[in-house]
Amino acid sequence: MTDPLFSAISESAPWWRVRPGTSLTVEGGAPLAGTYRISGAKNAVLPLMVATLLSPRPVTLNNVPASLDVAVLAALLRRLGATLDWREDVSGLSLTVTAAAIHAERIERDLVTRMRASVLLLGALLARSGEADLPLPGGDAIGLRGIDYHVSGLRAMGADITLSHGTVRARAAAGLKGADIRLPGPSVGATENLMLAAVGASGTTTIRNAAQEPEITDLAHCLTAMGATISGIGSDTLVIAGGRSLEGAVHRVMPDRIEFGTLAAAAAITGGELTLLPGVTGLGDATGLLGAADPVFRQAGIDLRPVAGGVVAGRADAGLAGVDIVTQPFPGFPTDLQAPAMALLAIAEGAGSITETIFEHRFRHVDELRKMGANITVRGRTALVRGVPRLAGAHVEGSDVRAAAALLIAGLGAAGTTVLGGLDHLDRGYDRIAEKLSAVGARIRRTEE
């Protein structure tokens, strides 16, 4: 990230203070203890921020995570003509976006190439202004996540889309039209993009084989609060009645279930105990946030005890044990918890395995865990993990958001010092995680390189 880019980000998100070129030094061996507040979901807040472009009225998002991806997207929205009003108090960070006038031509490569979620601008801008020229998005290097599902769905709604020289040029001069769309696979990004486009299209759009992640449900609830009509929320078939003028709304971002699972694993890895508070009233048993990961984590030796407002997470008396995990689209075990789960299995008794079915390049953290002494063998899309008594500190590099988090929590439980590079990845997806971990006993310091 160049200095001008850092300036653009910090001007749009004044709370962002972290400059590029830093590493974390982690002194392992300290059990975590205390209360850790789970932030708003990284995977939910980005499509919600894009959704604010669909209305000229103010839309307020509460429980916004203070992450780099949020700061980058804020800069993108500002360049497009939106005004941003940030507020922070004891309840967290809030953002009000007013997109009274949008300049769709002001999408620049420097910001777009930093984040995968920028592809969602296609659907929103086509719905709002009928045009978008978008450099191909960036983000994590975890596979060939092309945008063909997005493009084919938008074309079915009447958009004229061409791809040339790294830029997607989209036009809908006569406006988008409702369509019956069946996704070849339950893509989260494509489902969100088509939802954003459909609320501004004329007629009814049906999205079949839609992804069902809770973050999609969160987006649907925000859109309905803005005046959209959506049925089938939470199912694999979404029916959206378009053509309505959307208004302002106030929406609270759902808690981050991936941060929740990552911190539960961290508590168990360090032999500590954390009270994890998702910050949602009326949630009931907060372990429900983990979904399919809950029984797997319990089998692996993570003790999860519901308490008022949250969950106490730690290591079960019987210790950690190897388990077999297969990632699947929701409601299966989430791919975003695969890397933290591997850090856990690396010190579990016996052997376990992880089969990654979603992304073909999501084992980049394996070699880094091996540097710390982990015994991991990869065959195709399956990693066989034989637990060792303890990992050892090493110099490691995070290659994507979840890999960086896995290496961080592995370092917390390791003997000696771990130096974690690639912090842009960690900062992209987590709200001040190093600072929050320091508050519950982690020995971490951030060092400028």
Helix and strand topology:
Blueprint: H1 3-12, E1 22-27, E2 33-37, H2 42-51, E3 59-64, H3 68-79, E4 83-89, E5 92-98, H4 109-112, H5 121-129, E6 131-135, H6 148-156, E7 160-164, E8 167-171, E9 180-182, H7 188-198, E10 204-208, H8 214-225, E11 229-231, E12 237-241, E13 249-252, H9 257-270, E14 273-277, H10 293-299, E15 302-307, E16 310-315, E17 324-326, H11 338-345, E18 351-355, H12 365-371, E19 375-379, E20 382-386, E21 395-397, H13 401-413, E22 417-421, H14 423-429, H15 433-438, E23 443-448
Helix pairs in contact: 1-3, 2-3, 2-8, 5-7, 6-7, 7-8, 9-11, 9-13, 11-13, 13-14
Compute the average pLDDT.
92
Runs with pLDDT <50, length 5+? 139-145
Count of discrete alpha- or pi-helical segments spanning 4 or more residues: 15
Percentage of residues in helical conformation: 25-40%
What is the rounded distance between the termini?
14 Å
User: Which CATH C-level class of the largest domain is it?
Assistant: Alpha Beta
Number of strands: 23
Offer a few descriptive terms.
UDP-n-acetylglucosamine1-carboxyvinyl-transferase, Chain; 15 helices; single chain; globular; 2 domains; four-stranded mixed β-sheet; 31% helix; 26% strand; alpha+beta
What report would you give on this structure?
This protein has 449 residues and is α+β, with helices and mostly antiparallel strands. It contains 15 helices and 23 strands. The chain has 2 domains: 3-39 and 255-448, UDP-n-acetylglucosamine1-carboxyvinyl-transferase, Chain; 42-252, UDP-n-acetylglucosamine1-carboxyvinyl-transferase, Chain. It has a 4-stranded mixed sheet with strand order 21-22-1-23. It has a 4-stranded mixed sheet with strand order 2-14-16-15. A 4-stranded mixed sheet has the order 4-5-3-13. Helix 2 (42-51) packs parallel to helix 3 (68-79) and helix 7 runs parallel beside helix 8. The protein is globular. The model is unreliable at 139-145 (pLDDT under 50).
